[in-house]
């Protein structure tokens, strides 16, 4: 199979994996949001940063180090597995013993037991990291898709039943724990790899020399992305955090999925051609153009239909989340672009530069947090919007410098897609503004309008990136028909 075929196949299965898996979680989240209250989502939101930081430390950048390394041995995989497991248990113990202090910080006594139980998910996740890493290195997302779908459907079904039976916030705890647990269990059952009884100090040192900088970078980024939950939970009511949490989850559905899809596939693919600069640049440029066409259309389109979507899917009690969602969409539309530029730094083995950039970008977030504390959540999100543009410049400047693909060139490449998506979102928003029909039908009409507008304009002007996506899709359909 050629590199192009492997890439397209990887993108296809990564797309199916992410959107099916996240789609199930999204639907489950909608059902739970209709049953539970914003406060219950807010309580889990308060614990998000502690779980996320622990997960980041458990992985320690080793996954990317293993993917980047050309020829990994059984010693490499087993060494990282045992490290992940030990660190996972250690951090669960830390959260267990510090749960009372965390509860006191938020002035929510219920958090003590919630954190002690929810933290078990850290250990569950650590058990399956290496299996996922190996499958990603092989660009094998078909098996990962099967695993994640089964885990999401199983955990989601049980969580919904618990919510209907009146278990409240514990249904959200069960959702997370079961998803982590089932994911790891099925990876062990269906993936071929099993650890050997070996721990190599030499292998650890080699991988850690590259992964340690990614660990610190990932840790900084994880704290940055989740610090807002902590700030809102501390200085505002749990209900307000619930509104923000739901808005963030709606935003994350397209942006995080695209981010995961592109990162998971582009990193091993670009790493495999890292020594051919011209080929690397060409592949990188094409990935950015196509990714941002899809991202801009999805994120700006979501901002345009935010109000009827919130009302139709989770009810009017969540209306305060609408404005948060609209603003967060402008933040989220840059996430895949950040991921691609940072992937390039990793491909070029510049984890040192990766780390320095993360420190600089996150230092710029401090004023945003202070603004949020003193002037409210909306002003904080506005600061996030400014930060994401600055971050794009910093990431693209250095990654582009390495392969001759500058920040200005990237801007020129993605501007047509942005203008197309912006015009589509404007028309879609205006259509909804003058429709006096139930929210579900308004949402349907607006989405249909947006889709038809994009397809018609792209066909009329023969938009290059759209044509490429269409040809790939038709080619893939034709291949499956022949089978």
Structure description:
With 483 residues, this protein is an all-alpha fold. It has one domain (3-482). 86% of the residues lie in helices and 0% in strands. It contains 21 helices and no strands. Helix 15 runs parallel beside helix 18 (377-403). The longest helix has 35 residues, at 201-235. The chain is globular and about 65 Å long. The two termini are 16 Å apart. The model has no long low-confidence stretch (mean pLDDT 83).
Offer a concise description of the structure.
The protein has 483 residues and is an all-alpha fold. The protein contains 21 helices and no strands.
Put simply, the count of helices is 21
Rg estimate, integer Å: 22 Å
The count of domains is 1
How does the overall form come out from the CA principal axes? globular
Derived structural class: mainly alpha
* Total E-strand runs: 0
Order of helices and strands: HHHHHHHHHHHHHHHHHHHHH
Q: End-to-end distance, in Å?
A: 16 Å
Into which percentage range does the β-strand content fall?
under 5%
Main β sheet profile = none
Low-confidence stretches: none
Percentage of residues assigned to helices: over 70%
The overall average pLDDT, rounded, is 83
List the helices and strands and how they pair.
Layout (H helix, E strand, L loop, with lengths): L2 H33 L2 H22 L2 H7 L5 H33 L4 H8 L1 H8 L1 H9 L4 H23 L4 H22 L10 H35 L2 H35 L4 H28 L1 H9 L6 H12 L2 H13 L3 H13 L1 H11 L1 H27 L3 H27 L5 H23 L2 H19 L1
């Amino acid at each position: 199979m050629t590199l192009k075929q492997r890439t397209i196949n990887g993108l296809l299965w990564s797309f199916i994996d992410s959107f099916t898996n996240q789609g199930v979680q999204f639907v489950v989240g909608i059902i739970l949001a209709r049953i539970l209250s914003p406060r219950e989502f807010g309580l889990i939101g308060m614990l998000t940063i502690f779980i996320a930081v622990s997960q980041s430390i458990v992985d320690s950048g080793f996954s990317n180090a293993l993917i980047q390394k050309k020829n990994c041995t059984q010693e490499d995989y087993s060494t990282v597995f045992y490290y992940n497991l030990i660190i996972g248990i250690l951090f669960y113990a830390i959260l267990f013993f510090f749960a009372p202090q965390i509860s006191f910080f938020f002035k929510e006594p219920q958090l003590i037991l919630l954190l002690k139980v929810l933290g078990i998910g850290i250990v569950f996740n650590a058990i399956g990291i290496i299996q996922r890493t190996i499958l990603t290195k092989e660009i094998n997302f078909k098996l990962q898709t099967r695993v994640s779908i089964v885990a999401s459907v199983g955990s989601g079904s049980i969580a919904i039943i618990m919510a209907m039976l009146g278990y409240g916030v514990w249904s959200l705890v069960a959702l997370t724990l079961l998803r982590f647990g089932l994911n790891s269990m099925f990876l062990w059952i269906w993936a071929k790899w099993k650890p050997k009884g070996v721990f190599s100090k030499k292998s650890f040192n080699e991988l850690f020399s590259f992964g340690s900088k990614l660990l610190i970078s990932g840790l900084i980024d994880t704290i940055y992305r989740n610090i807002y939950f902590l700030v809102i939970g501390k200085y505002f009511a749990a209900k307000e955090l619930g509104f923000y949490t739901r808005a963030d989850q709606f935003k994350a559905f397209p942006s995080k999925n695209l981010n995961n899809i592109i990162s998971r596939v582009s990193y091993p693919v670009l790493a495999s051609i890292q020594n051919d600069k011209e080929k690397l640049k060409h592949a990188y440029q094409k990935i950015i153009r196509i990714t941002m066409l899809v991202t801009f259309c999805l994120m700006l389109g979501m901002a345009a239909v935010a109000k009827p979507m919130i009302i139709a899917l989770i009810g009017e009690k969540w209306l305060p989340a609408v404005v948060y969602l609209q603003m967060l969409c402008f933040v989220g539309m840059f996430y895949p672009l950040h991921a691609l530029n940072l992937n390039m730094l990793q491909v070029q083995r510049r984890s040192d530069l990766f780390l320095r950039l993360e420190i600089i970008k996150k230092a710029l977030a401090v004023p945003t947090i202070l603004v949020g504390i003193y002037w409210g959540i909306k002003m904080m999100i506005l600061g996030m919007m400014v930060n994401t543009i600055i971050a794009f410049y910093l990431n693209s400047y250095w990654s582009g410098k390495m392969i001759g693909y500058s920040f200005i060139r990237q801007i020129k490449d993605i501007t047509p897609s942005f203008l197309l998506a912006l015009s589509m979102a404007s028309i879609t928003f205006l259509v909804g503004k003058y429709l006096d029909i139930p929210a579900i039908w308004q949402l349907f009409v607006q989405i249909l309008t947006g889709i038809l507008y994009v397809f018609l304009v792209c066909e009329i002007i023969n938009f290059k990136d759209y044509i490429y996506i269409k040809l790939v899709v038709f080619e893939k359909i034709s291949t499956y028909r022949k089978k």
